[in-house]
Amino acid sequence: MTVATELHAAALNRLIDTEQARFLSLHPRSAAAWREGRRHFLYGAPSHWMRRWAGGFPIYVDAASGSHLRDIDSRDYVDFCLGDTGAMCGHAPEAVTRAVTRQIGRGATMMLPTEDSLWVGAELSRRFGPRYWTLTTSATDANRAAIRIARMVTGRTKVLVFSGCYHGGVDEAHVEIREGRIGLRNMIHPNAVDYDAVTRIVEFNDIAAVEGALAAGDVACVLTEPVMTNFGMIPVSDGFHRRLREATRSAGTVLIVDETHTLSCGPGGYTALHGLEPDIFVAGKAIAGGIPAGIFGLDQAIAERLWRIVPPVNPRHRQSAHLGFGGTLAGGALAVAAMRAVLEEVLTAPAYADMIAHAERLAARAREIIARNALPWHVTQIGARIEIMFMPAPPRNGADVIAGRQPDLETLLHAFYMNAGILITPFHGMLLTCPATSADDVERHGDVFDSFVHLVSDAGVI
């Protein structure tokens, strides 16, 4: 490490210490709640994700509405995190609140369908293409089911994923490539999974590597996002999806597209916008307005192959219909009612138009600030989703992210933003707009980002 690098790191650490100390002073009640929570919860809060914020402890929420959130210290935030996409509808949207309030009085779950499910099934096919749908309690469960089905219909074992991917709690996807070697990501501990037996991994956008990995004929499915969003946003190269579809069809491999984050691209997600043709379509998080739910849909060919193994109608109950996936609460009446409200009244075409317009203005302001200060940073915007990355150009793959990421600068950005009343996704520099996001919210972000640039510039960090 050079002297200049050491001085740079020291200056950055001082700024982080200052912002975290400021965070503590501004959030005394959240700090006390965190101390209490650590007495009861394994990682201090109901979910281990909740602890991963740059202030040193999480903000404890009092209430959230629209695009804003208020904590128990009575501080207000413009929310561009939106529950890491779970609240892409905005907080407490009126249509969802009305639907779940009505349904909860009529029964939350009965392990039986409601008439709302008929409307939801038809609407899912209208938006995402004609498919045979199953509802789950999360996108993780949907991905697990999709992988199981792919193995059932192909008789193969391996799942191909892209380095840096995230598909929930799917063991096969808990890997990445570092320094040319495959290992577990995010400090995940080995869990008796033989990754050589179940996983193949290549870099995103590398179609030659995909074709090579499929050549052995043992890959049941490729599991991918249309655009990688959970490792720093990685745009897709021109022609990659077309060639990926050709390669999987040629190899007899099932293509699973996980649209959990890229639903932000429009009413039919990235798939409808760009004419993708997945064998299995997966989504979750925002699909029921924050009520736990996921979906997966099989195209006609995959459904027919599955039905040859397990027929869809079995009146004499001579064969199990369990299939190895599901859950008692999956497709429950409450989730279905919320999903109908989201699809019918919240995530509409006009709402997407507003969300994307706000995202475009937010990205343009951030780019202007970066250009004015001649910074080696870039902004990626896809639909209603934006990412500010501290590297000169968009990454092509996970290796580029690993090589160029500046995690300490990201920590400083998150802490500074929270102290200034802005929330973004805590794991990197990703922002999301919702139907309730306003022009004032966008302007507020631009002002705070401009102040952040002045802070790090004056301190000699950039």
Across the major sheet, the strand order is: 4-12-11-10-9-5-8
What characterizes the major β-sheet?
A: 7 strands, mixed
Query: Mean of the pLDDT scores?
Result: 95
**Helical region count?**
15
Strand share of the residues? 15-25%
Structural class call reads alpha/beta
The shape, in one word, is: globular
Distance between the termini: 17 Å
Please report the total strand number as a whole number: 16
Contiguous low-pLDDT stretches (5 residues minimum) are: none
Helix content range: 40-55%
Rg result: 23 Å
What would you say about this model in short?
The protein is an alpha/beta fold and 462 residues long.
Topology:
Elements: H1 3-26, H2 28-37, E1 61-65, E2 68-71, E3 76-79, H3 94-104, H4 116-128, E4 132-136, H5 139-154, E5 158-162, E6 175-178, E7 181-184, H6 195-198, E8 199-202, H7 207-214, E9 219-224, H8 240-251, E10 254-258, H9 269-274, E11 280-284, E12 294-298, H10 300-309, H11 333-346, H12 349-372, E13 378-382, E14 385-389, H13 398-404, H14 407-419, E15 422-423, E16 430-432, H15 439-458
Parallel strand pairs: 3-15, 5-8, 5-9, 9-10, 10-11
Antiparallel strand pairs: 1-2, 2-3, 4-12, 6-7, 11-12, 13-14, 14-16
